[in-house]
Amino acid sequence: MQVAEALVLAALVAGLFWLLGPLRRRLEGWLARRLRPPEASRRARVVVLGQRRDGRVARVDGHER
User: Fold this and answer.
1) pLDDT tens for residues 16-59?
2) Is 64 domain-assigned?
3) What's the confidence (pLDDT) of residue 6?
4) Total domain count for the chain?
5) Which of 42, 41, 43, 49 is nearest to 65 (CA)?
6) Contacts of 50 (CB under 8 A, 6+ apart)
7) What is the Cα 21 distance to its own chain's centre?
8) CB of 60 within 8 A of CB of 50?
9) 44: domain range?
C-alpha cells in the first residue's frame, strides 16, 4: 500500500507542475517587467564621432570636452 501511495503522490506532484507551468512563466515575466529599470534610464546616450583632417577623432556636434 505504501508504494501505491508514493506513486499517486508522485503523479499528483508531476500533474501540478505540468498545470502550473504556464502560470509560472507568466509570473516570471511579470516579475521581470516589474524589476527592470525604467526605460529612460535604460536608454543609452549615443555620441557620433567624426574624423578631422589632421586624423584626430572629433565629436560631430563640435563640442569639446
Assistant:
1) 988 888 888 898 999 988 888 776 666 666 666 677 777 676 65
2) no
3) 94
4) 1
5) 49
6) 57, 58, 59, 60
7) 19
8) yes
9) 2-59
